[in-house]
Amino acid sequence: MIIGTLRVAYEQGLAEVTLEARVSNFIAQRLYDKYGFNEVGIRKNYYADNREDAVIMTTDPIRTASYREKFASLQETFLARYGDIRIEI
């Protein structure tokens, strides 16, 4: 989903991508970090179920050569491990 979202963002001409993760979800935060997301802030009491804070994470500019190279490498690693996964809806 991350790869697909980043591909669509690039195709749509967006400059960056932002998301939120629970402050307690370290696994998700590490995954997002791997794809170039950086912590840029906190949303206090963001989640309605338990009022947990959310970490706001945003990519570096996705249209730069350095980000595109990093993303291409991550896609290659993913494809080598899992193959080209297509989801039909």
From TrEMBL:
GO terms for molecular function: acyltransferase activity, transferring groups other than amino-acyl groups. It comes from the Eukaryota. Residues 1-62 form the N-acetyltransferase domain. This is [ribosomal protein S18]-alanine N-acetyltransferase.
